[in-house]
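Budget justification aside, the reviewers requested a transparent look at the raw inputs and outputs of the sequence design task funded under Objective 1. We therefore reproduce one unedited record. The lines immediately below are the structure tokens for a 90-residue chain.
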């Protein structure tokens, strides 16, 4: 059996409180998942924070794109591999 987990790169304001997600934390999650033997780490593929979510807050939610985020996590010395599911583009 293989286990995977996700990183909330663009879920602030929906699943995570505003200010709870940053790039350093996502890199820590990637490293922890690897150390724990997870098969893959998935990111959300939205190209931007959804307008209806952004409109609900004075300070917009943080957004970490689905391409730059794994590149940052992959640059960490302990992280050996990441999997992207897919990215929809216009």
């Amino acid at each position: 059996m293989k286990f995977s987990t996700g990183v909330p790169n663009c879920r602030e304001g929906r699943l995570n409180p505003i200010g709870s997600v940053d790039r350093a934390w996502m890199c820590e999650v990637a490293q922890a998942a690897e150390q724990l033997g997870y098969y893959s780490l998935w990111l959300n593929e939205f190209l931007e924070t959804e307008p209806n979510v952004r409109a609900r807050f004075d300070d917009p939610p943080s957004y970490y794109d689905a391409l730059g985020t794994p590149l940052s996590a992959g640059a960490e010395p302990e992280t050996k591999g990441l999997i992207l599911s897919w990215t929809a583009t216009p």
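The chain is about 25% helix and 10% strand. The chain has one domain: 4-74. Computational costs for records of this kind are itemized in the attached budget.
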